[in-house]
Amino acid sequence: MDTLRKKIAARQNPTVxxxxxxxxxxxxxxxEQAVARRGKTLEAAADAVLAFNRAIIDALCDVVPAVKPxxxxxxxxxxxxxxxxxxxxxYAREKGLFVITDAKRGDIGSTMAAYARAHLGTVEIEGAEIxxxxxxxxxxxAYLGSDGVLPALEVCKAHGxxxxxxxxxxNPSSGEIQDKLVDGEPVYSLLGHLCAHWSGMAAGGEPSGRxxxxxxxxxxxxxxxxxxLRQNLPHTFFLVPGYGAQGGGARDVAPAFDENGDGAxxxxxxxxxxxxxxxxxxxxxFAGAARREALRMKEDLNAVLADHSx
Length: 310
Fold this sequence. Notes:
Keywords: Decarboxylase, Lyase, Pyrimidine biosynthesis. By secondary structure, the chain is of the alpha/beta class.
């Protein structure tokens, strides 16, 4: 997490821009150009997505420290979409951005290790070490317990990467499972303590005075639970979805941060990607609108965090 924290500090902005491009919602001129070249195909859609992403990254790379591509939007477009995901990650890293792949992978043993190696590590091809995707972090579903997390931690240790485990997610029905009590403690809280334990295992002991290798996903739409988790998990870094289109605001996410304004990064996807629609500006200025929204979000967060840290 130290790499991510340094990038946040350098830009004075705890924002991660979600790259969740829906082909049907892209600017019409990008869709038309791609279809004119390659017809009504998955390849055309992936080309348009990649062009869109590159323009967004160019507009945001000096504003936000990180981007978070959601794997589903790329897998939706078959192998051309997966190629667009790989090229998006490579371009974002080339521009100095920290990349969190939001794939919510969860399996056990060699299968989980394969997921982690694919997204965070390398694969050996006849003695050559090759990087399939090369993200910096991966979201993980820990429903299968330690068997689904420890293989990923081995890859993290080998390659200097990290993971974010789903904890208290921002969706309305999350409480159907995550709020259930086990020995008097909510499931999301148990997951938080497990994250701290797994971070300690990765560090060879309990992390002290820093944030470890295993972060927690905790939604902006549940500020009371965010505050509780922050109090109980002083060395766990939070990935906070739910700001913007899902209804969370800066004051809702403030409890995720410690007294120094550290310890969390807040995601916004649709509000940034499709900001030109809300602005009502020309669609050809979609990247400029995304930049303006990211700057507005930065100011919004920093103003509230200044009060939070007093």
